[in-house]
C-alpha cells in the first residue's frame, strides 16, 4: 500500500503538470469552456468544484499549486490521511471543472483516492511513521481493502461485459478497428496493423483477459502466486496498450492501481535484491538513508496476519459502524456498475444516484465498448486570411493541405486535447464548437506576426473504416465557422 501511495502521488503530480500547460484553455473563462457555459450545458447540480469559484487564471493556478503541495505531502507520507482527502477533493474538483476532457483513467485515479482515505497506506515508508514503532506484523484486512480489491476487479470485468458488439464477441475485429483509428494509433500499433489474423487472436485474448483475469484476485489458495500473476499480466497488458494506442496516463494509473496487490514474498525478495543494508561511510546515499530512522533500510514490507493499524482516535470510534458503512458503499458501487449491464429492472434509479454524483463514485468502464468507433479522421483548422490565403492553424499556420498526415495523433498536444476533439465531434456536443473556434481565433490574434484572419473553419476530414483494410473517404465536414 505504501508503494501504491507513492505511485499514485507521482501520477497526480504528472497529471497536474500536463493539465497546467493548458490552464487557460481548459479551466478559465478565456478558454474553451467558460463557467457560464459549463453551468448551462455540462453541469450536474449534485457535483461540486472549487475550480468553479473563479474563471481567472490566477485562481486556477493557486488551486493547482495547492493540489501539487497535497500530492507532495502524500508522496512523503506527511499527514497522510489529510493529504489523501485533500488530493481527492481537488482531483474531483478539477475533473468536474471540465468534464469534456475526462477519460477512464481519471475515474480509476479518483476511485483509488476515495478508497485510500480508509486505508493505512501511510503506515510505512512515510514521514508519519517516523514517530511510531515499526509494526510487528504487516498483513492488513478490512472493509476498505475488500473495497479496493473489488474495485480493481470491477474495472476489468465490467469493461469486458460492456463489450457486447460482434467485433468483440464473434467477429474478432475490434482491435483491427481500434488500430484503424489514426487519432490514437501509436508506432507499436503500426507494426501490428497489417497482421489481420493476429489481430483477431489478440481481440479474443483481450476480451477473455479482462473477463477472467480478476478471478485470480479471489482464489483462497496460493494467494501470493495468483496475485503476482495478476499484477504482472496487468502491467504487460497496459504496456501493450500504451505502445499501440494513445491512451494518455491510463497505463501509469493502471500500473499504480495494482501495486497494493503485490504480495509479501515478492516484496521481500525485491528488498533483499535492491535494498542492501547501509554501511557506515557509504557516501551520500547512505547518509540519506540514515536520516530516515523510522522508514528503515531495508524497508520493511512484509504484511502478517493479526496487525491492527494505529489510527487517529476519531477513526477508532465505532469501527464496526465504519466497516458497515464501507460495505454499503461497496455494494452501492457494485450496483452502479451493473447499470447498463444487467436487465433494466435491476439498474439503479435516478433518485438513488445523488451519492455517486456528489462524491464522484460514479463510474463507467466502457473502453471501446460496446463496439469500436468506425468513424475516423483528422482536423484542419482552416483560416482564411484577408489576402485570400488558406492557413492550417493546426499545423502552425502552414498552407492548407487535405492530404492525410503521416501521424494524426501528433496533431494533438496531449491526451486531454485528443479527448476534447473526440467529444467535439458528437452532434450532442455541438454547443462546444463555437467556443473552441473563437478561442483559436483569439490565440491567433495575440501573436502580432500572424496575418489577420477573416474567417476560421474547424474542418474534420472524415474517414470510415471498413473491413479488410478498406476505407471510405475522406470527406470534408465543416463543424464550425466563426469570424473575428
TrEMBL record:
InterPro entries per the record?
Answer: HTTM-like, Sporulation_signal_mat
Give the record's keywords alphabetically: Membrane, Transmembrane, Transmembrane helix
Q: What is the superkingdom listed in this entry's lineage? A: Bacteria
The HTTM-like domain, residue ranges: 1-266
KW Transmembrane helix (keyword) present: yes
In what way does this protein cross or attach to the membrane?
Answer: Multi-pass membrane protein
Q: Tell me if Calcium is a UniProt keyword of this record.
A: no
Q: What is its main location?
A: membrane
Q: Where are the transmembrane segments?
A: 57-78, 138-162, 205-226, 232-262
A cellular component term from Gene Ontology for this protein is: endomembrane system
Q: Where in the cell is it found?
A: Endomembrane system
User: Known PANTHER family for this protein?
Assistant: HTTM DOMAIN-CONTAINING PROTEIN, SPORULATION-DELAYING PROTEIN SDPB
Q: What name does the UniProt record give this protein?
A: HTTM-like domain-containing protein
